[in-house]
Amino acid sequence: MSLHALNTIAIRTRQLAKKTLLLSLIAGISLPAIAQTVRDDAAPPETTLDVPEGLTIFGKQDPNVRRATAIVNSEIITGTDIDQRVALILAANDAPVSEEERARLRLQVLRNLIDETLQIQEAAANDITVEEAQVERTYAQVASQNFRRDTTALDKYLDSIGSSSRSLKRQIRGELAWQRLLGRNVTPFINVSEEEVKEVIERLKASKGTEEFRIGEIYLSANSQNRTEVAQNATRIVEQLQQGGSFVAYARQFSEASTAAVGGDLGWLQLGQLPPALAVVARDMQVGQLAGPIEIPGGFSLMYLIDKRQILTANPRDALLGLKQLSIAFAPGTTEGEATRRASEFASATRAIKGCGSADEIAAKLGATVTNNDQVPVRDLPAPLQDTLIALSIGEATQPFGSVKDGVRVLVLCGRDDPQTEGGPSAEQLMANMEEEKVNRRAQIYLRDLRRDAVIEYN
């Protein structure tokens, strides 16, 4: 669970608005939200409608053809609007995207723009306005935190990728307007009792030492008619992610769960809180691993294991390490065979390291470069190295790692500051988190009602 101590409804509203906005705009920063995975005992979606088995579709309209623009309650969404949002997503994807993938991405972006338009319209109908100065301040914050640029440089970058500052600022305005609307019409009417909080605290204490998993999920709904098509779509998403696509970006655009706004982050969960089909897979996953598509009642899920820990127990990934790195580089033109031979010699020599005190001497003999790193958080290191270093004793070295291009290196563990035992969230922090979950649930219902009442024309 996230740890946000909020003391009043007004403070909670401001914090929720700021946090949700940044979560949805800044890729890679995500906090827990509500798990929307369909339970294994839930009724499949198709049982809620009286649809005959042997049906006939009258007319020649192809349901797979969708037009690119729309008018939402008289407000136009143009093809340019869609193109500029798609460009933002493609810029965050390291791998090339096929034309088929791009077409599906455009459809999802159109759905997102329709929702955004409905949210802005509903805010305006409730006399809620977002000041231009607030939009500019948030734009500057996004430029600094996510793009590491000032606003002028970000303007130029967005133009260079086929997007625009106008598109990003409209997204910011929509997020701010929606959160202010929730702050007025939803948040003040949400209440969590002390009894509910005490019940959660008791469950935490009873579960001390039990493993928790922080999972990212992309959920795609399916029924008996479109199951094959959705499964193929899920497989294509997995392939894109394996080629370097951003899980957060894909979750925001494709996931049909409410957690899409926070990059699919389900937060910290115990296996018992997941449907059995997902729990079986999650139990054996390693941090950083992607799994799926996994068929569950109502659709398919893709899972990404962000982290795992033991409840109310110190997390070894919160330890701070003192490391000494020995590295050798390969000259341009070095062949794979020669690099392998030198790496093997390097491995043999570094196995003789007896603590950090002898590392400098061995590095000198090998002609290796030595770099000292103090106070390195374990969780900031690549996932494979995390598990290796957690298992090392002081003075031991890792196996060599690297490539022909980047050279080969080893890490020697010189010191470790282990984390303190986790005391768990306070009652105030738990209450804030539970209130936030209820706000998120109510927000999804609110948006569903707006969609149902909207007049939407596709051009």
UniProtKB/TrEMBL annotation:
Q: Which SUPFAM superfamilies match?
A: FKBP-like (SSF54534), Triger factor/SurA peptide-binding domain-like (SSF109998)
Signal peptide stretch: 1-35
Which is one Pfam family of this protein?
A: Rotamase
**Lineage: superkingdom:** Bacteria
The UniProt keywords, alphabetically, are: Chaperone, Isomerase, Periplasm, Rotamase, Signal
Q: Could you cite one Gene Ontology molecular function of this protein?
A: isomerase activity
Keyword Chaperone attached: yes
Record-linked InterPro entries: OMP_Chaperone_SurA, PPIase_dom_sf, PPIase_PpiC, SurA_N, Trigger_fact/SurA_dom_sf
Give residue ranges for domain PpiC: 210-307
PANTHER family named among the record's database cross-references: CHAPERONE SURA (PTHR47637:SF1)
Q: What is this protein called?
A: Parvulin-like PPIase
The record lists the organism as: Blastomonas fulva
